[in-house]
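User: Fold both of these, please.

Assistant: Here is the first one.
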Amino acid sequence: MDLIQFVDQEFAAETAELPKFGAGDTVTVSYKIREGSKERIQNYRGVVIQVRGREKTKTFTVRKMSGNIGVERIFPLYSPFIDKIEVNKHGKVRRKRIFYLRELTGKKARIKEKRY
């Protein structure tokens, strides 16, 4: 039991660093990439279209436009390869999963910013 509690405490320490975000928010994910013996950090900026899972198995999907092509990437929230997650904008959406964004292009695909 001691080992399990220790691992849970380690995971709890990692969770404190992550910001709160949800669907519609624009985030920049700094992801570590290993190429041979070298390691570099790649930034992936896009709109969160869904957050799913619970606790340690939570994942989130980020969609960005690369030229005219939409690219989606799924990140495990508690992955050791994620260096940091930075929330750029909080979007105002009514849904938890905004898959309708896939069919929209141009100005229609914009998300209003949440006011505080």
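And the second sequence with its predicted structure:
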Amino acid sequence: MTGKSNRIFNIVFAAMIAALYVALTFVSSAFGLASGVIQVRLSEVLTVLPYFTPAAIPGLAIGCLLSNWLTGCSLPDIIFGTVATLIGAVGTYLLRKFKWMAPVPPIVANMLIVPWVLRLSYGVPDSIPYMMATVGTGEVISCGMLGMALLIALKPVSGTLFHNDAMK
């Protein structure tokens, strides 16, 4: 791909990831799992995508921002939830040489940031360690288990799908 067409591809790819993140968050929200002390966002499955392409980083961040805004989260949740997703996405990209580490940055970022958002923005009275455990467990399910399943499923077609020969 030429430089210009590669930039266009990355913009479109990021937009598709953002849209998919929003759609999957709405599915989780329909089951009451998109926010709160106990949450398993299906959209967090996508946090392994920076393993394949840096275009996933803005896609995930924008998707999280839009999801939090559209589902009625507080302003601090919109901001700091997006920051947690951005940190996780960048971390996954930086650890891309270590496949099994791909879900770790989003798990850790959300486990450390989201409980404080729940406490300070929503006044949730549960202890921070308890919320770290519950949010962390949800992240392990969505990023660790389902995300790794997605990564393994996409790995054989990654060169074609992501236009990236480095992952072969």
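The mean pLDDT is 94.
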